[in-house]
Every structure is written in C-alpha cells, then in structure tokens.
Amino acid sequence: MAAGATIGRRGPRAERPAASAPPRPFVQRLLGDHPTALLFVAPAVIVIIGLSVVPIVWTVVLSFKSSDLITPARWIGTANYKALQHDHAFRESIKHTLIYTALFVPISTGLGLVLAMALNRQIRFIGIYRTAILAPFIVAVTAQGVLFSYIFDERFGVANSVLDKLGIPTQGFLGDPTQAIYVIALIGIWGGVGFPLVVYLAALQDVPRELIDAAAVDGARRWAILRHVILPQLWPVTIFLLVWQALQALQLFELVYATTRGGPIESTVTIVYYIFHEAFQVFHAGYAAAVAVLVAIFLVLVAGLQFGFTVVRRRLAA
Description:
By secondary structure, the protein is an all-alpha fold. It has helices spanning 2-10, 26-31, 38-62, 79-84, 88-119, 126-138, 141-151, 158-165, 180-192, 194-204, 209-217, 222-250, 254-259, 271-280, 285-317; strands spanning 65-66, 74-75.
C-alpha cells in the first residue's frame, strides 16, 4: 500500500521529448547512406552518358551548323531543316523506308504467330524444329545480306537458276530497280521472324489452359477458340511486337549496306542509309544531323504510342 501511495503522490512519469537527429552532411544527403555503391554503377553510367547522351546533344547542335567533319563548322540556324522540304532524295528515302516497313512489320509478326502456334506442341524432335526456325534470327544481318546477294544475283544466283529450270523467265532481283526493295523486304522477313516467334511462343504458354478446355467443352471449334480465346490473350504482346518491328524497320541500314549499297539507281536508299550517305560519303554532316534529329523524333513518337496504349489498357483493366 505504501508503494501504491507513493506512486499516487508522484503521478505518472512525464514523457521526455525525443531528441531530434542531427542534420546529415550534404555529401551524405547527395550520395545516400551507401556512397560506395555508386562505384559499382559508375562505369555503366559513364558508358551510357558517353555513348548516348553526349552524341544526342552533339547531333542536335550539329544540325544547326554547316559541317563537313573536317573544316570548322559554321552556324547556319534552321537552314538544314528548311532544305529538307525541297530534297527529292530525302522524300524518296522516306518512301522506300515506308514500303519496307509496310511489308516487314505485318508479315514478320503474322508469320511469327503462325510458326509459334505450330511449334507450341509436345511432339518428337520439337527442339530440332525450333532451332531450325530460330537459326536465321541468330545470324548477323550483314551475313544474311552477303548470303542473299549470291542467291539473288541476276546472272549467277541460285534463284534464277531454279527459275530457269522451272521454265520461268529470270528476274533482276537486287539488280532491278523495281524489285530490289521488295527483295530486301523478303530477306528482312526471313531474318526478322525469329523475335516475334520467341515472344509469341512464350506468350502462348501463358494462356490459361482452362479457358481453351472450357471453350472446347462448349463446342467451339479451333478457329473460334483461336479468335475468341487465344488472340485476345495475345493482344498486348501483338501491340508490343508491331511497335518493336516498326522501330526495327524504320532503322534499316545493315541489310541495304550489305546487299545493294542503296542501288540500283538509288531504289533502295532508306532513311538511315541516306543519313550515312550524306554524313560520310558526301560529307554533309550538318544536313545529315538534321535528318537524324527528325528520325529520332519520329521514333520517339512511335514508341510513345505503345506506352500510351499500355497505360490506357491498364486503366481500363483496373
């Protein structure tokens, strides 16, 4: 009781205010609690800045100058951009690029889906079949170009030899201005179908088997299952592949350089090859930089379409 009375007389112990933490040094606030961790990411940051950020800024500045990469550059403002409005070769390069893109994107994506569905089975030797289909995707683009340059040679090529034996007139292929860009698109599809195939093959394995079995029990046929069950599940992947393949097609260069070098009669000059030609063959570096800036802006807009679609789809799903 005495102890209780003592407690009653003193009352509850008053809480002391917590001592405020001393302010952290400026270096610690800037670099974080573990500044040594920055040493591990510093090499990657330096490479990214040196190979990405610096060239972008330099290209933008160069686009407002007249430069041949040898003599000192001269500031000319927006003259390079104004000159593009009247450049027939620039418009033709855009035309060739769009033709290639219009053929490459839907055909490579659709063919990748067909092959992925054919290979999404548990059959004998499926690993060999998948390897054979994916082999062109592994081969370098320049190697593909050299290989098909021999195959589609207008005089000694294998393709014309086969056509001759079938009684079909020989074709000019890469040597014909009216056929060259379409032949390049065919080569690009042969080598570019591997990426959509891999992505679709992975996406098909994630489609819930219960949905397919439920549709089959309800009497749906294969085409109905494909249309109403499988394709809706693959729609986000399809959008990604269409945008990705479009970005690859708009940057076509290696295949043209390895096959036709823009010929014959400049019938296969694409926009990126045109930049290369202006900068390093005729030394109009400032003019080429202006073209590169416009192409970069367009590519960012195309990539933004995919990002916008993804955001809208997530909000609708929520």
